[in-house]
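Person: At home tonight, work slowly through the protein below, taking as long as you need, and write a paragraph about the fold.
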Amino acid sequence: MTRVTITTKKSRHANKFGKLIFDDGTVLEGMGFGYSTTVFGEIVFNTGMVGYPETLTDPSYSGQILTLTYPLVGNYGVPDPTIKDPDGIPKFFESNKIQIRGLVVHELSLSASHWNLSLTLDEWMNNEKIPGISGIDTRELTKKIRKGGVMMAALVVSDSEIDEEKIRKQLQSAPKYVSEKFMDAVSTSQEEVYGQTGEPVVVIDTGAKNSILRNIRNLGYKVIKLPWDTSFEKIISYKPKGVVISNGPGDPQNCPDTIETAKKLIESNIPTLGICLGAQIIGIAGNTKTYKLKYGHRGQNKPCVNLDNDQIYVTSQNHGYGIDPVSLKNSDFNLWFKNVDDNTVEGIKHKIKNCIAVQFHPEATPGPYDCKFVFEELSHLMGEGNTAKK
């Protein structure tokens, strides 16, 4: 019988001073961990129970301070960030770095134990210069965000006492999340190719998770990842079988180049799939409107109903903007999925072209795999050329 060695490590970057200061004046004090610094960002919450390595590296969280509602975080540590799959894609992470600006938890586990453990959570965050705070009543904090909506906050981790008044003043002058433009920070700056076999599928990188690349590769296609502002002419020069517009952070209106490209993709009837931010971009390209949600959808248990068959799927989600359902009436799209909890738009299909989009994450990671069939829908469009209407 093979024996597995279970690695255990202790936290080394905890027990610091920590404060969370909101733009409405609220101040929460806790134990700082990770890297000693001050960050400003939009504070949001995620209701997932597991998967913090994947969550923290999701580019859709760029510019945000993330609250994890599950009460104990860090007990299984972090796997080795350098390990990659056969295609050269990081095996355990959704990008090549931590994307959040800061982390808020109820309790940080001061020891971590797991067969795949390489780093403790606080060690990983310290290495990547990300601050965290523990000892916060995350239940109360989540209720505050649900009631008042997302807001700007400052997270301070320090080796010495914190000057609260100084941070308040800095917070007032810090750039607001809604005005920030994230694409140059989260998108690749050059062509990246994954896989040597299969017909090409172009991924327009507006903050693409690695799992999108993995799922396309698993279907047998070669992935060509291109910058967010790549022109339509450049994209079609690769003679792609299909195109995916990825997830990502911020307001879709801040991606005008991608919106114009999406319009041309639709007009040319190139099979196209939009995911999360990509769904909003495709929606705008097809004459829908978008809006900012009060506190967003972030978690792994969001129920969505497929209106084609009335089947309910449990989905993984991470977005703060959505497609206005009223605007669908005069658009080029039909409603495909809707959220069971609040009836928001979760998926659309073009009325006549080979174009589909979902607001949730069919690649999950972390979360349920119920909706991986969405990639097969794209493969169907690419393989048979039938319209999404079918």
Q: What stands out?
A: The CA atoms of residues 336 and 348 lie 5 Å apart.
